[in-house]
Specification:
By secondary structure, the chain is mainly alpha-helical. The protein has 6 helices and 2 strands, in the order H-E-H-H-H-H-H-E.
């Protein structure tokens, strides 16, 4: 007799002496042979620079330039635009010095600059993808 679980050969009985499986509990199943067709591609040239550029673009987050600018104008005193643009350290500094009023002034100026600058400098400076132009 052959064990349905591990495939070990044994004389008989309900339990396999090798793995201890209950062979009476298993139903007879027909096994169909599965033939997988494997395709191998050879001699594929990969441009490593293009792969790295795609990885960088994939890892960039999508952020709206308009939202960042408005956050800077309205909530720049607590560094909301910095947190939104993934500048956590600068955002924490803004919170620490919010009592001076300097982060509010910097946020106002930064928010206005973000709103009036072109998309390309915004994306390069903050290492993001402008969600205002992305169409999926």
């Amino acid at each position: 007799m052959k064990c349905k679980c591990c495939g070990a050969e044994f004389d008989g009985g309900a339990y396999c002496p090798v793995c201890g499986a209950n062979n009476k509990a298993y139903k007879e199943e027909k096994k169909e042979e599965v033939h997988e067709e494997k395709v191998f591609v050879e001699n594929v040239e990969v441009n490593q620079e293009e792969v790295e550029a795609n990885k960088k673009a994939y890892n960039k987050i999508k952020r709206s330039k308009t939202v960042a600018g408005i956050l800077g104008i309205l909530l720049g005193g607590i560094g909301a635009q910095k947190f939104y643009l993934n500048r956590i350290g600068a955002g924490i500094l803004s919170i620490l010095f919010c009592w001076t009023g300097i982060p509010a002034l910097v946020g106002l100026i930064e928010g206005l600059i973000i709103l009036v600058e072109d998309n390309k400098p915004f994306e390069e400076k903050y290492d993001v993808i402008n969600a205002d132009e992305v169409q999926e």
